[in-house]
Amino acid sequence: MRAQKTTAVLLALSLGVVAAACGDDDEDTTTTEAAGGSDTTAADGGSDTTAAAGGENVCPENLVIQTDWFPELEHGGTYQLIGPGGDADKDTISYSGPVQEQYKVGGLETITIKTISFDKANSSQLLDGDADMAYIGFGDVIKDSAAIDMVVVMKTLDKDPQMVMWDPTQYDIQEPADIAETGAKVLHFPGAAYIDYMIANGIMTEDQDDPSYDGSDAKWVAEAGAVIQQGFASNEVYKYENEIAWKDGAPADVSFFTVGEMGFDNYPASLTMLKSRADELDACLTLLIPKMAQAWVDFFNDPKPITDAMIEINVAHDGFWGLSPEINEAGLAVVEEKEIAANSADGTYCSIDADRAQGIYDTVKAVYDAQGVEITDDVTSIYTNKYCEGAPGR
């Protein structure tokens, strides 16, 4: 697998219209189009499910979904459930609002979408009752499977945009194994299954392991690209090649491998629940998951209303993360080019493929056996496709 560069393709894109200006950054809560939302959390409101005959009101009034990052197009189908008219809360760094009518089932009225917590893993968000559902990579669900009883109820993306990138003028990397030969530090978030895979398979060494990444460009810029760094092929590549001045006072080309191109065919950001919570919401999920799949299909059919709203939401959150129409359009092109948002093998935009799940399991089992980490002995115990019946495809 040859290293990839994308500058020429991305610069040739037709760029979108700049989004409307956001509300006052000093306000704690910004409504992107219309008032709405709810202060209900998984612990105080999302957990109270009212059962009724005929399948009505089998869902909580408010559902809390924990994502794995700040608002970005790779989360588009989840934000589609609310649409562009929700409330962006600066204090909680969340987005909430009424469920759009076309996705409303089982008494579900509102959704709260939480962004990444740097202090608490997404699995802990589930354990502590802070969220009903969370984005967790399939490999990471396997990694925690002996310790935490979780189940994946649907995919969000089909292929993983996660990648590692480098400065091609500093490092001659043509194949994944060349990364180890550079000796460069590999900057990443801690606890990632794909890093365990890379080390176990000689793609990088333990000496290169640097789990101090905080999502910002600070270290890359400070070291003028002397590190190898994680990111999304559908986001950071464009930023570093077009927006971030990191080399001789200007942006510059980067090269990258996605984790799939390095042999780790992961389902990223799988929609995951505690099994006990999934059992409790079984009747709700039967109705809701096909609607959530429809939201993803609808988002990719017409992404601009949500991607424009995400620009405003990030401004309202007032953090270091930001988007632009150019980043969004370039990222969507990468998503389509690399089939990141492809249908599942059964034609739905929902299910987990059994053979692929087994392949991921076999890959990481060898890694964790060597580390002495206990995992489930049956990959089918950590996912279910039963809620995907009747789900649409793109």
Q: Gist?
A:
This protein has helices at residues 7-11, 42-46, 76-80, 122-127, 138-143, 178-182, 193-200, 218-222, 236-242, 275-280, 282-301, 304-317, 325-337, 354-371, and strands at 29-31, 62-66, 87-89, 94-98, 110-114, 133-136, 150-154, 162-166, 186-187, 209-210, 228-232, 255-258, 270-274. The chain is α/β, with parallel strands linked by helices and 394 residues long.
3D architecture notes:
This protein has 394 residues and is an alpha/beta fold. It has 2 domains: 29-159 and 268-388, D-Maltodextrin-Binding Protein, domain 2 (3-Layer(aba) Sandwich), CATH 3.40.190.10; 161-262, 3-Layer(aba) Sandwich (D-Maltodextrin-Binding Protein, domain 2). 31% of the residues lie in helices and 13% in strands. It contains 14 helices and 13 strands. The protein has an 8-stranded mixed beta sheet. A 5-stranded mixed beta sheet has the order 10-9-11-8-12, with no helix packed on it. It is globular and about 60 Å long.
Order of helices and strands: HEHEHEEEHEHEEHEHEHEHEEHHHHH
**What name is given to the CATH topology of the largest domain?**
D-Maltodextrin-Binding Protein, domain 2
Number of domains: 2
Helix proportion: 25-40%
**Which CATH class of the largest domain is shown?**
Alpha Beta
Name the poorly predicted regions: 6-30, 33-41, 43-54
How many beta-strand elements? 13
> By helix and strand content, what is the structural category?
alpha/beta
Which architecture name of the largest domain does CATH use?
Answer: 3-Layer(aba) Sandwich
CATH superfamily of the largest domain, by name, is: Periplasmic binding protein-like II
